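Memo to structure team: turn this sequence into structure tokens by end of day. - J.P.
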Amino acid sequence: ALRAQAEARGQRLGVLVRRDDRRPYHEVYRARFPGAEAPARPDRAVPGPVPTFAHQLERSMSVVLAGSAGERVQSAAAILCQAAVLSGLHCVQKNDYPVTVGSGFSLSEVKLSTEPILYTGVDTPDAVLIVSGNGLNEIRGRGDLARLAPGGLVLADASLPPDSLPEQVLALPLRATLSADLAALGAVAVLVHRTGILAPAALLAGIEALGLKDAEGLRRVVASAAALEAERPSVSR
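Reply from structure team:
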């Protein structure tokens, strides 16, 4: 269509100007600074994470995790991504937060797949995890609950108002049981335990691989969240 419009206007597409009288920048730089060569590369590349855990993912899966700023929401999403990579999966993570950094909501979109991810958008989330009122407000404003995939999981902290959530929601006292800054990781651990997509041990390895502070406390959260979900398997309302 663009080509047809150009022809109708008497215009043409393609390379209109080509100059060969200027040397490339890297040649000019090397001539001007001959001693500033880059260090030699090692003989072999440093290997990346080696898959060591089994997974049960059969198709791509999208997860939206929402909470409050400063409550380690994006760290929890990063642990999920790292666990997926250690399980041989492809993963992308996109974070969002308001201009008022340090206050308001914090949100992460995570996409897991057995194949390379060519489209990183989350049109129909398979799971929505909400661990604070700020996160709930952002989820409602974005319309994630209305776009939930058929059979999708909504997991929310038990402190959130039921009338703001769908009928089928798994409500757990994550904040009361685990603390506010660990509720997001607790929600991720419950998701892994309930769906079986990853081995819980992969989450533990993800914590170690990222080198996060208080690793021992984070490991306890993974175990506590699984036990918490097992005690309350039914949906609320």
